[in-house]
Design brief:
heterodimer, A: mainly alpha, B: mainly alpha, 0% strand
Chain lengths: 568, 50
């Protein structure tokens, strides 16, 4: 990175944070602090919902997923538009009608305080754990490739987000989200344009897409019914529906983005904005990864993209031999791809089929060498990080983009990290204040200034805890999956609580509370004992919570069913 | 502490105010149709390139 990169990076990231803090420095109203500006329109809400979900992990890991496994991960988002329709039609009107600050207040009104605390507690547990990951995940990658101290990156990004989130609360979060999304969009468009321009002469998008497709990277949809496959249309539509319904309908970091705003209409249109754009957006990012794969078939690249990790261990001759094998496999693959492209252009079906077989064999050979490299790393050090897909895109950025654009793309990583982090901190602070602090100090609820002060302190506290967690904990290697797995374990049951609240009016608080605890225990036991795609745990947790609730409502003695048929 | 019901909330049947859509149901059907179209297009994309 040179001076131009630094100017772009610091100008955008620090500039947006400072602007957000300065513009919202006078926020004194609890409503504005927790729900945002009351005149917020659907565009800001839509961008804020999008920025909350699009963490740095999205922009680091997704292209890596496309590079390594192809674009099939896009199916993970198939349930999202359907879930957003349900949230817009059922959840949002109820939250606005009851005028709640958090989704869990609704549980308190529908069932009882115990169930509200359980829902809020599940959220704090899940989101609090993920909060450390969302700071650590981009920090470890950025610090590794740029050679910056990891702790410095964690503390810098953590402090930056704490300052403006604590200052302006939800209003600052929404305000900064708009500008952060502008930076993210500009950066990703730049990266795609540079990638297309850097493809070999004569290949172009169409040729690159055909190569990627022939090498198995463009299977966007898979209708297989095999439950052990992680990404199919069915896991996406059903598992993804439940994951998205839980995330958008019951996770306070999202609920807080859309319950404010000028009217119900603005919130609904903001959600529909995401329902329309999310799948195409994720598709483009994954496609970028698949095209990166083709680009690296023609450009020299390391056998293992996390070069810092590789250099730490690759000292003996075995590693040199693997690098030599990779170079020769790559040369073989290049000539096989060119032969296939020539056969296609000549419209010679027989030659094309044999060239295709040779190209696939050459691709398999590269995969074998890369697997060998990872095995060698693991043999040299069992604690070595053997996944490198998260480093593919950042390597491309640093080695292929012109100066200025490098700074912009690193700014994309920081902007996305800060945007999701800010929404998380605001939600954690709000839930702790409204659902816990005010629960145990009901008399303090009328003192608005004190409530804002307490919300600021809790937001800051969660920020400091997340930074500390990121500083002192190690995390799973594949970052995007680790967050999704964590979410899938807790979200299903949380969603079950809300589904029972909305649609099973005869079930009361005692039954649903006991059912949720039992269902959560069941999901955790199943996760550690079964080998099924993790998205299914959203469905299992939700279904178990509903089934246990209905069963317990019937089985519990009449006195224990108190709370039946309350508001809702 | 339970907040009061919002007295100022417009009716949930308020039209979406999007040209071409008079009801929310119509808008939801459009979004659902868009989703189906995107899945079909992804299937076509897979068929062409994979």
């Amino acid at each position: 990175m040179n001076v131009a990169d630094w100017v772009v990076l610091l100008g955008t990231i620090v500039g947006i944070a400072a602007y957000g803090a300065w513009r919202t420095r006078h926020v004194r109203s609890l409503n504005t602090y927790l729900r945002g500006n009351a005149s917020t329109g659907w565009g800001t809400i839509g961008l804020s919902v999008m920025a909350t979900q699009a963490s740095a992990i999205t922009f680091l890991s997704l292209p890596g997923q496309g590079f390594e496994s192809g674009i099939g991960f896009v199916q993970n988002y198939f349930g999202l538009p359907l879930a957003l329709i349900v949230v817009s039609a059922v959840f949002l009107p109820m939250y606005r009608r009851l005028n709640v600050y958090t989704a869990y207040e609704f549980l308190g009104q529908r069932f009882d305080e115990k169930t509200r605390l359980l829902g809020a507690g599940l959220f704090l547990l899940q989101r609090g754990l993920a909060a450390g990951v969302t700071i650590y995940a981009p920090a470890i990658i950025i610090s590794t490739v740029l050679g910056w101290p990891l702790n410095l990156v964690i503390v810098f990004s953590g402090l930056l987000v704490i300052v403006y989130t604590v200052t302006g609360g939800s209003e600052a979060v929404a305000l900064t989200h708009k500008w952060q999304m502008a930076v993210i969009s500009a950066g990703m468009v730049t990266a795609m344009a540079v990638l297309l321009l850097r493809l070999p002469d004569g290949l172009g998008f169409s040729g690159a897409a055909h190569v990627a497709g022939a090498l198995g990277k463009l299977h966007a949809v898979d209708f297989s019914l095999d439950p052990s496959r992680r990404y199919t249309v069915w896991t996406g539509v059903f598992g993804g529906l439940f994951l998205s319904l839980s995330y958008f309908g019951t996770d306070q970091s999202q609920v807080q983005r859309y319950i404010g705003g000028a009217s119900l209409r603005e919130g609904r249109l903001g959600l529909m904005f995401n329902a329309v754009l999310k799948i195409p957006m994720q598709f483009v990012i994954l496609l970028l990864g698949a095209l990166l794969f083709v680009f690296y078939q023609f450009a020299p690249h390391p056998v293992f993209f996390n070069q810092a990790e590789w250099r730490r261990h690759a000292e003996d001759s075995r590693f040199r031999a693997i690098e030599a094998q990779h170079a020769s496999a790559l040369a073989l693959s290049q000539s096989a791809i060119r032969a296939w492209l020539q056969a296609r252009a000549a419209d010679d079906a027989g030659r094309e089929a044999s060239a295709r077989t040779a190209m696939i064999a050459a691709g398999d050979r590269i995969r074998e060498v890369r697997a060998e490299a990872k095995a060698a790393l693991a043999a040299a050090d069992p604690r070595a990080k053997t996944q490198d897909s998260d480093y593919v895109f950042i390597t491309f950025i640093l080695t292929q983009l012109p100066h200025g654009a490098v700074g912009l793309l690193v700014a994309v990583m920081f902007a996305s990290a800060l945007s999701s982090k800010a929404a998380e901190l605001a939600a954690l602070g709000t839930t702790t204040t409204i659902d816990f602090w005010r629960h145990f100090r009901p008399l303090a609820a009328a003192d608005e200034a004190r409530n804002v002060r307490v919300a600021r302190r809790f937001t800051a506290l969660w920020g400091v805890l997340a930074v500390a967690f990121a500083l002192f904990a190690g995390f799973a290697e594949n970052l995007i999956e680790s967050i999704n797995i964590l979410g899938s374990i807790f979200y299903g049951v949380l969603l079950g609580l809300f589904v029972v609240a909305f649609f099973f009016r005869r079930v009361g608080g005692p039954a649903v509370c006991l059912a949720a605890v039992t269902a959560q225990a069941l999901v955790i036991v199943m996760y550690f004992s079964l080998n099924i795609g993790y998205l299914w745990y959203n469905l299992i947790g939700c279904a178990a919570c509903i089934a246990f609730s209905v069963a317990l409502q019937t089985l519990l003695p009449p006195r224990a069913r108190a709370g039946e048929g309350r508001a809702g | 502490m339970t907040p009061a019901l919002r007295p100022d909330e417009p009716s949930e049947t308020e039209p979406p105010g999007v040209p071409g859509f008079r009801t929310w149901r119509g808008l939801y059907l459009f979004v659902f149709g868009w989703f189906v179209l995107v899945v079909i297009l992804l299937g076509v994309f897979t068929g062409i390139f994979a």
